[in-house]
Amino acid sequence: MIICTLLGLLAFVFGLLAEITKTETVWITGEVGSGGYVRCMYVDSGRSALVSGVGSMLAMGVAMGIGQAYMWMALCTASATDTFRPLAAWTESDSNHYTIFRWQALASFVLSWISFAVAAVLLIIGIAVEAGHTERQNVVRYKCTVVREGVFAAAGVFGLFATCMGVAFYASAVQTERLQEEEDNVRREIMELTIHYTPTSPPSPSIQQHPTFSGDLQK
């Protein structure tokens, strides 16, 4: 999860770099005969923004892939030593504590994938636009397509948020596992106290011999 968080920060930084280095245009006006014209030309090739956008996309994708794969393997893979399974507690237990953790995990999971999808769409649009004019950028054109302000920055923010939601999903699982351990420890202590204070066999009633006074009464 630390690696996923670092990759999310890297995706955010690449998004900001792509926003800073995205291609700008220069508009050229002139007159031909009795009419005027407006033309445009790209300032640079856009390779820096393109590389930064691709780097943000890769970092975000690797972070989501590693985080989700690790989480679902930890939640679903059974082992002989690990008896605490948050997924089993979320699906089988009716306790209020587990219900809260279940909804937290579900909200984190859904928000992480929604944020990832939004960031991926924004990055794909930005990469496609920047890749369209990597060659012959100094040619005067009738139409110049550029990425809008804030597209790459928003993609970086959504990518970082998606990674944070993955970490929140992991935190919900850890809290559920700790609650399971605490309940198991309390249950074990109660059983030990019950065994310690419960006698193994019921006590046998003591028979007390009372003296007889039949002879004395006859005398």
Walk me through what this model shows.
The chain is mainly alpha-helical and 219 residues long. The longest helix has 47 residues, at 151-197. It has one domain. The protein has a two-stranded antiparallel ribbon. It has helices at 2-21, 47-76, 86-92, 96-131, 151-197, 214-218; strands at 25-32, 35-42. Helix content is 66%, strand content 7%. Helix 2 (47-76) runs parallel beside helix 5 (151-197) and helix 4 packs antiparallel against helix 5. The termini are far apart. Strand 1 and strand 2 form a beta hairpin.
Q: What is the spatial order of strands in the main beta sheet?
A: 1-2
**Molecular shape:** rod-shaped
The overall average pLDDT, rounded, is 77
Strands, count: 2
Report Rg: 36 Å
Sheet with most strands: 2 strands, antiparallel
Number of helices: 6
Structural class: mainly alpha
Q: Which blocks of ≥5 consecutive residues have pLDDT under 50?
A: none
Distance between the first and last residues' Cα:
99 Å
Strand proportion: 5-15%
Tell me the number of structural domains.
1
Order of helices and strands: HEEHHHHH
As a percent range, the share of helical residues equals: 55-70%
